[in-house]
Amino acid sequence: MNHFLKLIGSMVIVFASVSLYAQDEQPMIGQPAPLFALKGIDGKTYSLDQLKGKYIVIHFAATWCPFCNAEAPFLEELYQNNRNKNVQVFIVDVKEDKSLVEKSLERFHFSFPVLLDDSGAVSAKYAPEGVQPALARHEVPIASNLIIDKEGKIRFYSLLNTASFDAKLTKLKQKLDELLNVVK
Q1: Cα–Cα distances in angstroms (integers) from residue 181 to residues 59, 75, 115, 145, 170, in the given order
Q2: Assuming Cys at both sites, which of 48, 123, 140, 175 could form a disulfide with 156, CB separation 3.0 to 4.6 Å?
Q3: The pTM is what?
Q4: Residue 67: what pLDDT?
Q5: For the chain, what is the radius of gyration of the CA atoms?
Q6: Could you give all domains of the chain from N- to C-terminal order, each with its CATH number?
Q7: CA-CA distance, 59 to 36, in Å (whole number)?
Q8: pLDDT for 25
Q9: Residue 5 burial class via C-beta count within 10 angstroms: exposed 0-12, middle 13-18, buried 19 and up
């Protein structure tokens, strides 16, 4: 019961607080993405370092997050449309048990890796300073999307903004298309 109450409390804080950043005012742009190595649901270890030379889309998620679940089919669509263009998509699930994540993801049938941030340490590295100080640092990026360029720099960062939620990932897709067209 305590876990349930804590979960409800976290959800209220996340959904009641609108980020200090509007989706067009993105934090950490141009900065090197914090490096990480995480195990995926598939048992493999994925490291940001080994993916240099690719565009990487990361979505921080939790199974209880309705925003994350709403974006899920559009992340799969984005991956299918761009996987042959040197683009890798990941979901980084934050502080949840592998069995819970596996059960929740059965309905989405992702063809890209879902990574487990068991401790929340990776998510916390992606929490911009001063944003939503009432939340634990690992909770801040939940439902956020990033694009990391071939050199490992953050080129797009959309923190959850409940006032202008973009379930179809329109702005992320526009930025990815812009980045891919510059390369051609």
Answers
A1: 22, 20, 28, 20, 16
A2: 175
A3: 0.83
A4: 94
A5: 15
A6: 2-183 (3.40.30.10)
A7: 14
A8: 60
A9: exposed
